[in-house]
């Protein structure tokens, strides 16, 4: 969301701050917040690129995720001609929706969010949502995810990079329904790099993620 509340920024200067997949952000002037990351994430590491077959169809039944009408997402590209890359893109989009659904529901342990995260990322996601619940905030508006690119490393590992335009998304105080709007800045645009792994049910779960707020490559 555009403009992470000051309170939430302070609360989440932990590993949870890395999981800003749909986090309110960008208003802080502290340059130390420009690059949020989960310890141990190594999305930029050199890897042998592979294109394994996607003959094994995903067998898991994905959870149904419902969001309020005042919260929307768009994803570009939405899908790929490559079956494996397409599966990664789809599960990544559902992860983003699940994270926001958890914030709206004020439930850090929302089953849909746990469905798409594992290990380090699961812990960070729970802490990130809890920061919102503890502060009594939710989210509203629209976020545009674009330049989504998948690199498949093996039959069950891949990395994903993408940008987020959070200029039209905001934090909202649940009790008063006040929407926290501030001007759009460079930090309204965020670059993400994620590591995902396919589990035994064919779900591409988020394992690690890094983000760079105000990244040049994501500017309009």
How would you summarize this macromolecular structure in one to three sentences?
The protein has 220 residues and is an alpha+beta fold.
Which sequence of SSEs, written as H and E, runs from N to C? HEEHHHEEEEE
Work out the helicity level.
Answer: 10-25%
Principal-axis shape equals globular
Instruction: Give the helix tally.
Output: 4
Radius of gyration: 16 Å
What's the total number of strands? 7
- Uncertain residue segments: 3-23, 25-58
| N- to C-terminal distance | 17 Å
Structural class: alpha+beta
- Tell me about the biggest sheet? 7 strands, mixed
Average the pLDDT over all residues and give the rounded result.
80
Beta-strand residue fraction: 25-35%
Oligomer: single chain
Folded structure, characterized:
By secondary structure, the chain is α+β, with helices and mostly antiparallel strands. The protein has 4 helices and 7 strands; from the N terminus they run H-E-E-H-H-H-E-E-E-E-E. It has helices at about 5-10, 85-105, 110-115, 120-135, and strands at about 35, 70-75, 135-155, 155-175, 180, 190-200, 205-215. Strands 1, 2, 3, 4, 5, 6 and 7 form a 7-stranded mixed sheet that branches. Helix 2 (about 85-105) packs parallel to helix 4. The longest helix has 23 residues, at about 85-105.
């Amino acid at each position: 969301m555009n403009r992470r509340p000051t309170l939430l920024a302070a609360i989440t200067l932990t590993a949870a701050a890395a999981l800003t997949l749909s986090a309110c952000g960008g208003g802080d002037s502290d340059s130390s917040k420009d690059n949020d990351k989960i310890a141990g994430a190594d999305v930029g590491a050199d890897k042998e690129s592979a294109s394994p077959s996607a003959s094994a169809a995903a067998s898991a039944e994905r959870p149904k995720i419902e969001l309020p009408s005042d919260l929307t997402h768009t994803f570009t590209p939405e899908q790929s001609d490559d079956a494996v890359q397409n599966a990664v893109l789809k599960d990544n989009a559902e992860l983003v929706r699940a994270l926001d659904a958890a914030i709206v529901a004020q439930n850090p342990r929302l089953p849909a969010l746990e469905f798409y995260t594992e290990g380090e990322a699961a812990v960070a996601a729970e802490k990130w949502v809890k920061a919102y619940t503890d502060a009594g905030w939710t989210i509203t508006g629209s976020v545009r995810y674009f330049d989504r690119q998948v690199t498949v490393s093996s039959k069950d590992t891949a990395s994903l990079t993408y940008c987020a335009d959070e200029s039209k998304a905001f934090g909202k105080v649940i009790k008063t329904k006040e929407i926290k709007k501030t001007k759009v800045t460079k930090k309204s645009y965020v670059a993400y790099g994620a590591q995902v792994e396919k589990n035994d049910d064919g779900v591409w779960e988020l394992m690690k993620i890094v983000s760079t707020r105000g990244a040049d490559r994501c500017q309009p």
